[in-house]
Amino acid sequence: MIGVGARGPLAAAELMRPVPAPSRPDHGGWTGLDLSALDREAEVPCWIAISLIPGVGPVGFARLLRRFGSGRAAWASGPSLLEALPRVPEDAAPALARLQREGVSSIAARIRAASQRAGGAIVTALDDGYPSALTAADPRPPVLYVAGDPVSMATTCVAIVGTRRASGYGRSAAAEIAEELARAGVTVVSGLALGIDGAAHEAAVVAGGRSVAVVPSPLDRIYPPRHRSLAARLVAGGGALVSELAPGSAPGKPDFARRNRIIAGLSRAVVVVEAPDRSGALLTVAAAIDHGREVFAVPGPMDAVASRGCNRLIADHQATIVTSAAALLHRIGAVPGGRPVSVTTLSDPEAMVLHALLQRPASIEELLSRTDLTTGPLASTLTLLEARGLVESYGGATFHPTLVARRIGRPTGLDR
Amino acid sequence: MLAETLSASIVGVEGLPVRVEVDVAFGLPSLTIVGLAGSQVQEARERVRSALRNSGFEVPARRITINLSPADLPKDGTGYDLPIAVGILAASGQLRSLERLRETALVGELGLDGAVRPVPGTMALAAASFCAGIPALIVAGGATGEAATVSGLRVYGAASLAEAVSHLAGVRGLPVAEPATLPPISQGRRGPDLAEVAGQALARRGLEIAVAGRHNLALCGPPGIGKTLLLRCAADLMPPLEDDEAIEVSRIYSVAGLLDRRAPLLRDRPFRAPHHTISTQALVGGGPRVRPGEASLAHRGILLLDETLQFRSDALDALREPLEGGSVTIARVDGALTMPARFTLLAAFNPCPCGWRGSRQRECSCEDATARRYLARLSGPLRDRIDLWVAMAPPAAGTTSRSDGIEPSDAVAGRIGRAWRRQLARQGMANGDLPAGALDARSGFGAAADAVLAQRGRRFRMSPRRTHRAARVARTIADLAGEEEVTREHIDEALTYRGAVDA
Q1: Partner-chain residue, chosen from A304, A377, A396, that has the shortest CB–CB distance to B389
Q2: CA distance B81 to B2
Q3: Does the model's pTM come out above 0.90?
Q4: Which domains does chain B have, with CATH numbers?
């Protein structure tokens, strides 16, 4: 029981010091619990039922197991089950009574059918398919609802997280890192949110890689709705959707925080791309530090509010700076994937514009001062480069070279 | 005895001939006006009575009935005073010679002393009289310039009722008014000069294309970036009105009472910038007595909606019809009436309520859903009708804009004028007004251009409608460059403006 003393008067001083991986056994870890002794057949329905009680999260569940020895015993204890929990919301007791009336086998059948309808399966911590990475990230969620291929979570996973209000720079950085990871066979994990999450999933799927989305909502109600088609493509591409919530339940605020813990738990490393102060992505970082995962952060310009969180993580030595996607791959020991063969010939203005963009992404205004083109021809050239997949613009204000363009390196006018 | 005089009424922005029938019969002395006469017409009774008496005529102590025909058309305004007064004189035998009366329409308000005063819409009323086959028109002395813009119509200006009557009786003829001439082209500056706008090369170029080809433009960006200043420059970039357009537009302004009677023909294209608190009625027209709204006042010119998303959503929705068809139809109890409203829309708005979404310098304080809802105020159909989108950003630190960015308005207006002439010569209308399917080899779209357009459409996942709109913009870009054929460069430049702003 290490660390119990840290709650004493020393706590403040203790907290000032960055602690790499504090373990917090009193927080409901599963360490010491022998799951192999449990009867899986009898346990799973009770686990499902208990996980439906409001206020029972991974921490509370671990407490119940510790106190009663098994899920079946806990369920059988009736209302006294709630007494073992650290915090009980008001609606817990009536909900428990209702569930008890329904009966454990009926609940399990109902939830199983609902998950199947949503295209998912139930995976509990007792199952072989339970992601092994999560067993090392206590408190582990007892019951998961998974749509897609669970193998995607068994291979090396790296999380890419960041703000929903991503800038063009953030999106392009997320896409580039995700694409490199996917090519190297690494599964890209994120939260399916708008902004950085979406850009990372999208790039991984387009590159033909696997991607896992841990969603803060049940599988039958993917959030955000705008990413439903992305979610479907992700599953079709060999990835998976993971949710901690049973189909039919309503997502609340704490679920976003718990989702972030699962993202960190599943992953070997967490890469933060663009996070302002007080970003949800920083919660994922906290969880990653908690779980002893490596944290990387993509630096941003010092005047960019959207990158303040990232820059501070780097300044405080809580995250390793990401200088390039290749360097990140090297750090996590992944082998860069095959490079696409692309023979690209560029006209003079194309070469000039791309060269300028490779030095630094820029707006039309900046490009005007960095090339000798006038507005019309410059705009025309940018659209051509975009159509050829060498340049991307986000929101039409700034233009970025794509990964393909970076691979061409310093372009020269070849068809002169 | 019975008499009849000719006049005209305004419906929307058009005139309609009206007959004023006067019956003077035995009975208790009275003066009744029928024929859906509004309150302004009812008051004519008092004005006419006094004017007649003070002009030395007699108001017959009989039962006088006046009918305005067609009797099912609601009538309002003070222009019937003169025809009513003259009708009474004819019916009571004070005006005996009816020859001239039969071929002369009368429009004018009467003062109690018998003075004839001009009424709004004189130009449209004159046109209506002429179209009805009436060869002559008597209006107030001050309104002859306006009325004489209708060529072929003999217009007489009468200062008083007595003058009008002596002309009609053939005692002392009035001179025929000279037709108004178009004023010289330059009317002086109306807005700021493009040279005052710092940087923003893409928005500046977008504005040039929008004005040259009459395409609708939207600028989106944080507050204080110069959206309004830039768009206000558009007033001086437009080419002058063509001759037929000048009459069309002046007529609308005449109806709205906004015409300067000393220079009754407008030469400058309208530039209207209503405030965002405007009501739907004021924006597209309407009201109990239908008046042209800002959309019609911007006909053949520009309608600038600054802070577009702050406008009432029903007002914005009402703009769909004019943007689609170039006219506004107002449904009324007694039928629908249509007013022309073919304008170029210039829109400017912030990307979210606080204005800082997507900005690097400041954090946006809006919820995602709030920002999305904010942009959703620009409804899909309206969004579809915007051809050019520009996302504006403040210049990044350390970049200096090059000198070619500060071209003055005169230079840009010159280029726009030349592009405008090319469009008129080729197709008789602006590129922005071209219907779908009109862009073919004859308008410079060869096989190569078609192929590029199709490929880009697929690549950027654009609907056929948006592709077509981009093609029209490309045509304008080629016109600005003075080129007959639309090339890959023109299409690609047009596509730079394709992006719809998304939350």
Answers
A1: A396
A2: 18
A3: no
A4: 2-169 (3.30.230.10), 194-495 (3.40.50.300)
